[in-house]
Amino acid sequence: MKTKRIPFTVEDYQRLCTETPFHVETREGLPVRVICLDLKGAQYPVIALIDKDKVEAIIHYTANGKYYYGGDESEYDLFLIVPARSLGWVNVYKYAETSAVHPTREKADSAALSNRLACVEIFEGDGLENCG
To answer: Which of 4, 23, 41, 94 could form a disulfide with 84 if both were Cys (CB 3.0 to 4.6 A apart)?
Structure first.
């Protein structure tokens, strides 16, 4: 399954818990277990366990999953890994005779011309969000 990586926020984490399968990892791809989202009286309310070389380290984060409070990037910043949403199927030609996104592979196949090179499923996050 194709996935996409979105920056962690407490709000997104809580929403995803009820909507879709997902997991959390660091910027460098280390597995993360979130333990607490609301540590009282702290500028780092998120507590997570980072799995590094079969040993878990306890790390505190901002509500936006940042390791550093000022927002500077860190290899330990948190990301939510969620399934990428399919936008549909596109028939690919050597020369652009036609261009359409079809909701299913079957519909793309039935609309294909004889000189089709490929039929490709496109996903949210494939650089197509701002096209159109």
So the answer is: 4
Residue 124 CA, chain-centre distance (Å), reads 9
Interval 98-109: pLDDT, tens: 778 999 999 999
Can you list the positions of beta strands (E) in the chain? 3-7, 23-26, 31-36, 46-52, 55-61, 78-83, 86-92, 118-123
Q: What is the pTM of this model?
A: 0.72
- Average model confidence (pLDDT) across the chain: 89
pLDDT at 37: 96
- Cα dist from 128 to 24, 81, 86, 122, 125, whole Å: 25, 19, 11, 8, 7
Residue 48 has a CB neighbour count (10 Å cut-off) of 22
- Rounded to whole angstroms, the Cα distance separating 60 from 49 reads 9
